[in-house]
Design brief:
single chain, 402 residues, alpha/beta
């Protein structure tokens, strides 16, 4: 089944900034119907930012022109962009793990352009991925990574897109599953759908792509056919693992000896190298020169040395030991005094005259006790613990003490 498509995706002078940082700077990309375009670049070059800006889910400040089949997509929300025909398969698949395969696919058909043709789109997805038919009722999180990637692509295909964008679809897949994935993308292209592919696996992505762009430090530095990029020494050195003297970082047109090449026929050279970054001197950051800081540090160190020399010498080791021994003796005496029992003397009644009896016989005076007070008597009193036993009354919530 081949679908007829006209127009295509046009991105012109796209710039994305996060505060003062530019994640994408003046990038221009074209994707025509029925072709695969791959974006190659290192981590942090701005590849994912490009796809997010096209799909309307970029959180940065987006400037530039994005059109699909001549209609502007700039500034539209993500749901409107999906209704226009641009679908995204995000990095990490983004499937609903607790739902079944069929439920994930049906959710992809929620856009207005796909609701009426839901059955047709589902049949098309099943023709692309026959394995999803037998796994229709399986919970997605129980599937392998390659099968989950099929579900993610199938869900995006359910929106009946004109342009399908994919962000690192082979991430986390085995080499065998990667090969199967790229073969499936070729089947999607055969339906007349344009594919914009961001991929780290440059070798396999260039093998199925029609054209490619090189994205370095937020800039598009080169565009060419996939075959030319595969055979380019600079691309081989940067992305395909080639090295040595035969893989320079610049690309120039070959010229035979004694034969002039017309200027219009010579391909433009390009360089895959980091863009020179603006540098700021340390004096501007610190607010003073480094020489002044070094001089101040030297002066402070010299002052510390002088102060150390004028400080009286520390007491010798013998003096410190004597002080420690005296302190320990004082602590021992205090502990011994604390262990002594406290003595409380019994008070004696004062000698006072006895009341004289009313009779005529005089009372013999009692001798006074001038003996020293007896030492206090310590009596230890032992009190047995009291134990009470309570029992619940049969058939009642009350308790009796036994």
């Amino acid at each position: 089944m081949t679908m007829s498509r006209t127009g295509g995706l046009e991105v012109r002078n796209l710039t994305v900034g996060y505060g003062k940082h530019r994640a994408l700077d003046d990038a221009s990309v074209t994707v025509r119907p029925g072709e695969i375009v791959v974006i190659l670049g290192a981590n942090g070059a701005g590849k994912s930012t490009l796809l997010k800006a096209i799909s309307g889910i970029c959180e940065g400040q987006v400037k530039g022109q994005i059109t699909l089949d001549g209609e502007s997509l700039s500034g539209l929300p993500a749901n409107r962009i999906l209704d226009q025909g641009v679908a995204l398969v995000p990095e990490g698949r983004g499937v609903f793990g607790d739902l079944t395969v069929r439920e994930n696919l049906i959710l992809g058909a929620y856009s207005a352009r796909a609701r009426e043709d839901q059955a047709t789109n589902l049949e098309r997805v099943h023709s692309l991925f026959p394995k999803l038919i037998e796994r229709s009722g399986q919970v997605v999180r129980t599937m392998s990574g390659g099968e989950q990637q099929m579900v993610a692509i199938g869900r995006a295909m359910m929106s009946n897109p004109n342009i399908l964008t994919l962000d690192e679809p082979s991430l986390g897949l085995s080499p065998l599953l990667c090969k199967e994935l790229f073969q499936n993308l070729k089947k999607v292209r055969d339906l007349g759908i344009g594919i914009l592919l961001v991929e780290q696996n440059a070798k396999q992505s260039l093998a199925i792509a029609d054209r490619g762009y090189l994205l370095e430090n937020a800039h598009i530095v080169h565009e060419d056919s996939a075959a030319a990029l595969r055979n380019d020494p600079a691309v081989q050195a940067a992305y395909l693992g080639a090295g040595g003297a035969a893989a320079p970082h610049t690309h120039d047109a070959p010229q035979a000896a004694g034969e002039a090449v017309p200027a219009e026929a010579a391909p433009q050279g390009f360089t895959i190298a980091p863009r020179p970054m603006q540098t700021v001197s340390a004096d501007a950051i610190l607010g003073r020169s480094v020489a002044d800081l070094v001089a101040a540090a030297s002066q402070r160190q010299q002052s510390a040395v002088t102060e150390k020399r004028t400080t009286p010498p520390a007491p010798s080791g013998q003096v410190q030991n004597d002080r420690l021994a005296a302190t320990l003796d004082e602590i021992a005496r205090a502990a011994q005094a604390a262990r002594r029992p406290r003595v409380v003397e019994r008070s004696r009644p004062q000698d006072r005259p006895k009341d004289r009896p009313t009779g005529t016989t005089a009372q013999t005076p009692q001798p006074q006790d001038h003996s020293p007070a007896a030492p206090p008597v310590t009596i230890e009193v032992y009190r047995a613990p009291r134990i009470e036993v309570w029992r619940r009354r049969p058939g009642a919530d009350d308790f009796d003490r036994s």
